[in-house]
Amino acid sequence: MDLNAEKVVVITGGASGIGRALADAFGRSGCKVVLADVQEDALAQAVDQLRSEDVDALGVRTDVSKLSDVEALAEQAVDRFGAVHVVCNNAGVAASGDPWSGPLETWEWTMGVNLWGVVYGVRTFLPHILAAGEGHIVNTASIAGLMPGFSAAYDASKHAVVALTENLYNTMQTAGLPIGVSCLCPAWVRTGIIDADRNWPSELGAAPTADIIQETMQGHVRRAIDEGMQPAAVADLVLGAINADRFWVFPHPDFVQLAMDRFHQIGAGHNPDPPENIPGMPPRSEIIAEVMAALEPATTPDPSGQAN
Ligand SMILES: NC(=O)c1ccc[n+]([C@@H]2O[C@H](COP(=O)([O-])OP(=O)(O)OC[C@H]3O[C@@H](n4cnc5c(N)ncnc54)[C@H](O)[C@@H]3O)[C@@H](O)[C@H]2O)c1
Question: What DSSP element (H or E) covers 86?
């Protein structure tokens, strides 16, 4: 699909990171841009900056985990611009908290934003895109949607997004509808995702704290993200996929190879065996040793000189 001044694009999670870079890229193509985000200060700043660059931009405070918010977003986008052609269901969070013994809210928040946000986005905007005559839906999953290893709730939410997005593509093809579908599966990208807890909703109580394993991992993940791909490069790949009507958007081919290795293990009926080396991270054996050391009870020196 051609991206030009006639096209209206809605981007959730558009105030920072990949969503913000998408807004810049669509704006450069001349499109009108609607940014939806729960973080109001960043949203206002993003819209101001886009307008200062002559992009016709609208910001709508939206919590994508709430259907009424997503419906209000669609209404405001159509009121302002008359149509919607492209929707990027991109808002996402990664929550702290032990998935099996920590608060259930870790799952509720992650699933609410990462999965239900995408479901609401697709269901709400599909009729509008159909009414516009042509369009494209981009769902941001993650490489964690093809190989688990980040955290249980995040991995589960992203696997679900990959599955529903592939299903959506097949449905659009079968029905012969003029709506393209793409699934974005990045690995490390230089964004604020590691600090996603900044948007923890107060109605869910206190934000869960990291368990020992997460604490150990966090430094490594933060560094990998800080050294990751620039969001602008990811955005360029997404726009290229829309222009070429490409389903998969894989910014990190080395991670795709790891996912393929996993599927070979699955095909052979082998038990899960996570890779020893993941790009950007220390070897798995080193991380396990670090976690074991962190789990060991602290040994305090005994003033008598005897070990305790
Ligand atoms: N950064 C990475 O390494 C990476 C890797 C794979 C996938 N992703 C995915 O990319 C997407 C974008 O994340 P990012 O990396 O740019 O992080 P980010 O934190 O920089 O951006 C996420 C945006 O989503 C917004 N948001 C959070 N909760 C929301 C809600 N309930 N409703 C509306 N907006 C909400 C945030 O305010 C923020 O502006 C996410 O779906 C994430 O899971 C990121």
Answer: strand 86-89
**Ligand 1 centroid, distance to 242 Cα (angstroms):** 20
- Kindly state whether residue 264 falls inside one of the protein's structural domains: no
- Among 43, 88, 93, say which to mutate for ligand 1: greatest number of ligand atoms within 8 Å of CB: 93
Domain annotation covers residue 202: yes
127: domain CATH number is: 3.40.50.720
Task: Please give the pLDDT value at position 304.
Answer: 53
Neighbours of 38 (CB within 10 A): 23
Low-confidence ranges of the chain (pLDDT < 70): 298-308
Total domains present in the chain: 1
Task: State the CB neighbour count (10 A cutoff) for residue 40.
Answer: 11
Let me know if residue 261 belongs to a domain.
no
Which residues have a catalytic role annotated?
154
Q: Which domain holds residue 20?
A: 8-211+230-253
In this structure, what DSSP letter does residue 114 have?
I
* Domain assignment present for 2: no
CA 268 to chain centre: 30
Q: Atom 2 (ligand 1): residue with closest C-alpha?
A: 189
User: How far from 90 is each of 21, 60, 113, CA to CA, in Å?
Assistant: 11, 15, 10
Asked if 97 and 209 count as a contact pair (C-beta separation under 8 A), the reply is yes
Q: Which amino acid is at 106?
A: T
CA of 203: how far to CAs of 109, 195, 199, 207, in Å?
A: 11, 19, 11, 10
Atom 31 (ligand 1): residue with closest C-alpha? Answer: 63
Reported residue count of the chain is 308
Ligand 1 pocket test target in 12, 37, 49 with most atoms within 8 Å of CB = 37
Q: At what angle do helices 40-52 and 17-28 cross, to 10 degrees?
A: 20
